[in-house]
Structure prediction request, 192 residues.
Amino acid sequence: MTTPSQDFERLQLKVSTEVREHWKAFLFEGILLALLGLAVIVVPPLASLAITIFLGWLFLVGGVVGLVATFWARGMPGFWWSLLSAALSILVGILLVVQPVQGMLTLTILLGAYFLAEGAVTIMYALEHRRELSQRWGWLLTAGVMDIIIASVIIVGLPGSAAWAIGLLVGLNMIFGGATLIGMALAMRNAR
Prediction:
């Protein structure tokens, strides 16, 4: 019988071995993700619109599946809450698909509010842990300030920022995700 720590070590070894053996696939995925991210950044209004419509379909399909599941298991406790959740998901999906431009504006407002709240919380976290994190607390503080700057640019730029904010941020995320995969793949190639 093995211990949980031995199982974990065996799992880590297996994952590491698989990543090493398939480093080219990770490299290809990283390059593709980075290129798609660049494409999204080049045309952020189109990307923002596409993302809004995609989210609308996700909400719509998720709501329909939730509705079917709710009626399938209508004897379970919380039927009415589940029904309400599914109906809200369907409503949001329909609104985002039918009126994607207004949906982009709403999503951009939510994105700005998220960055504002995240920035404030990160700054408070940094200040709270200033002693424990010694020199690293400044990085947290900087991240929080950057979040607030991003929120300010998005919120002050409304409604115009709705055309580019979602696409630009998703594109940047894709580029950084792709770069991470490329770096991991190259490190695994060299570890052989």
Remarks:
- The two ends are 31 Å apart (CA to CA).
